[in-house]
């Protein structure tokens, strides 16, 4: 199949074949990152705007580097100094970027649906870099890429996602991607943050962490985001750590070939024991490296690339 | 004629021929923005510094993209993290940028005359990107470009500028450009903000909005800048909107081929009705697109380009 | 000799030959800055990350321009919007940048030793752009370059450094570089800020400014950093200016060919008289220009360049 979408707004609307196509393209780009000269001219003369209405460094830099390596020009537009603060609507900001001949807008926004909204009001490719608690599609793609790279497959694997599922865009995008690709997904965390309604998506829900991790091939730990946590729904940090952290006792009981994932930035000693984060079965930094390749693939495909065959890198 | 200036400090000191030369050069660059690869190598190896001592996103990004498309390197220098905060004088900051072999400084500053001052203390091309209430020359050039593009001419047109004229650098630069190019300029707004002294420049001054717009070929609405408005001189927003906003009633009475302009960011429902901002006679987004071409032309000419003939794009 | 280090962490551990090699390489790069097209492709496809955990404009821009002129890609990572604020450790931040295939990290940090720490935890070249009160090696290299350029040699010269020596990373790096290159170094300032312990490094310490400057070939004035000054150790500004400023009376008594240096940004009227800062014997702006060449040399050498012979610019 060939890629035909103009936007990457979510994982929910992608087919398994489309996801696989992104992963295959990313694999070709990963090789570029290992060469002495890490650039290809695929997006020469194109302009990527990082429209980050919510602060981020990690994702912004990953997209910025991905664009650089495709030889695109990048402009960073952050909320701190922006006209959004002067009362301009998001639609007007985006239409201005379109009028400046931007080719792609990478948007992070605290409101779920903001990227979808943008895609309807501008004639520019829109990439969702995280919208509220809704989706963070490139994170799910890089997670899937990492699982496939390390395990050789995704289908049939047991993947456990641990933490604040309810308010996590990472969890939501991962659930969609993993289920589409044939994994079994178990969600675990405090009952206020992991409601039974997720069973309707096809996941297993449990509040017993030991049960959640015992058969897992992949354990994906979400970041406890103090700054976003709703106080009424979240136990205190110490209690969370006692009940849900991947500590050494729990780590000793998981499958010997289970892999540990985390979208970062990690809170050492909170959701994960510090030594476990650095152990050989942690693929946290592989995720970061793969994120660059996945974002190059996404920028390439949305700009009219058809797939890895056409790439020739 | 050939371009011979080193700086673009204001419109007041330009001749009509010089303005036309910028517009002709911008026309050639506008075609570049419509190609698949939007870059030309005209400024390869040159360094443009955006020295924004007053916050701005729109203008900064427009200059940044213009420089990218000419293959220049761009460095952003904003006041938030700058040595200006450590008590360095503006002259010393600029001379440091000169010592770093910067080729052009694009300066926005709250003090009128700051760009002129810089041009006397450094041997680098200086571009005024807005100085206090004084001038914003590239805005006037892109407005003139847009009028000429849409109407085929500027001479003899009736242009009405509506809003806070007294404190507006956009108004001041527009008045100079339009009068030099042969338009008739009418200024309208609250009497505290549109004093009769502007008649000495050759404008018509009125405080009656209906009279101001009835014969206008162009209606240029200025942004109501809450953050800068002097309270003693400005009615409240509701009162301003009642008296001076371009609402549907007023819009129904303007000439059928009159065009609506606005330097942005727009306050929907304040100085302009939201639907009018988006209607077919609004050229607000054309202004943004043309701003990129005009700024490419300005960077090109100040770097030693002679005019569109030499450009060959 | 050939360059063989992977990091530039301090001056203390460099040999005189290594320092000379950087200066020789910088001399070749200075010629690049005087050409119409100031770029060379030496670092094409390489990524330089400016990790500025302490605010800076001057040094950040100098490194950014140096990287641009070597055709590297540059990403700015400042503390204001960074994941460090979300509680990520410096080690994790750096390992993430490594995972993103960054080739070099330029770090400024308020903690002495932060660059050394980074160099042990990541497999990426680390450049110290100032760590606490410890070292600022590229500043010392550009100062040495400037002295050698202007005086033809460093060996045997009398260099006086004036100001807050105790808390100055600029002073510490300069002392190491100058002593290694054979200069005689005199330190002067209030006794609380210039303790006798510096004599153990091989410097002369005096609290009498007239004696400190009378035989100096070079007078290097440090910036009085109000924002960092410990109140218990610092006289008030007026008292400092009276006792230690390079004013006209003192300037009249220095050697007729003595040169005035300052790392900038200068406080006119505090540590230096405004006219003296601008006089023909001040090489303050030469330092800025040379800083660019020195930083190009450092980036080039750390990326595997062997020396100026190989450069061929």
Task: Report on this structure.
The structure is a homotrimer of 313-residue chains. Chain A is of the alpha/beta class and 313 residues long. The first copy, chain A, folds into two domains: 16-135 and 291-311, Aspartate/ornithine carbamoyltransferase (Rossmann fold, 3-Layer(aba) Sandwich), CATH 3.40.50; 137-287, Rossmann fold (3-Layer(aba) Sandwich). Helix content of chain A is 39%, strand content 14%. Chain A is globular, with a radius of gyration of 19 Å. The mean pLDDT of chain A is 92. Chains in contact: A-B, A-C, B-C. Chain A binds chain B through residues 44-47, 49, 73, 75, 77, 80-83, 86-89, 92-93, 95-101, and chain B through 33, 35-39, 55-58, 61-62, 64-65, 68-69, 78, 80, 225-227, 264-268, 285-286, 288-289, 291-292.
Secondary structure topology:
The structure is a homotrimer of 313-residue chains.
Chain A: H1 16-33, E1 47-52, H2 58-69, E2 73-78, H3 90-99, E3 104-109, H4 114-121, E4 125-131, H5 137-151, E5 158-162, H6 169-180, E6 184-188, E7 204-206, H7 209-214, E8 218-221, H8 237-244, H9 248-253, E9 259-261, H10 274-277, H11 284-302, H12 308-311
Parallel strand pairs in A: 1-2, 1-3, 3-4, 5-6, 5-8, 6-7, 8-9
């Amino acid at each position: 199949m060939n890629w035909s979408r103009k936007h990457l707004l979510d994982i929910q609307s992608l087919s398994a074949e489309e996801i696989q196509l992104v992963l295959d393209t990313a694999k070709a780009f990963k090789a570029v990152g290992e060469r002495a000269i890490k650039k290809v001219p695929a997006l020469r003369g194109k302009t990527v705007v990082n429209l980050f209405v919510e602060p981020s460094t990690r994702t912004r830099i990953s997209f910025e580097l991905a664009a650089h390596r495709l030889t695109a020009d990048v402009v960073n537009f952050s909320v701190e100094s922006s006209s959004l603060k002067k009362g301009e609507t998001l639609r007007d900001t985006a239409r201005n970027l379109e009028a400046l001949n931007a080719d792609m807008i990478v948007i992070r926004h605290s409101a779920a649906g903001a990227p979808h909204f943008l895609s309807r009001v501008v004639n520019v490719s829109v990439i969702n870099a995280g919208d509220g608690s809704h989706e963070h599609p490139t994170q799910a793609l890089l997670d899937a890429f990492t699982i496939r790279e390390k395990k050789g497959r995704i289908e049939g694997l047991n993947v456990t996602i641990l933490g604040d599922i309810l308010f996590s865009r990472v969890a939501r995008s991962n659930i969609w991607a993993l289920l589409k690709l044939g994994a079994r997904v178990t969600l675990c965390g405090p009952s206020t943050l992991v409601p039974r309604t997720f069973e309707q998506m096809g996941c297993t829900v449990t509040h017993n962490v030991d049960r959640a991790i015992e058969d897992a091939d992949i354990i994906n730990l979400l970041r406890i985001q103090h700054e976003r946590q709703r106080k009424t729904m979240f136990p205190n940090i110490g209690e969370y750590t006692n009940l849900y952290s991947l500590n050494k006792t729990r780590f000793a009981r998981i499958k010997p070939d289970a892999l540990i994932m985390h979208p970062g930035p990690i809170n050492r000693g909170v959701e994960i024991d510090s030594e476990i984060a650095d152990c050989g079965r942690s693929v946290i930094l592989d995720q970061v490296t793969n994120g660059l390749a996945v974002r190059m693939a996404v920028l390439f495909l949305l700009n009219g690339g058809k797939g890895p065959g056409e790439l020739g890198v």
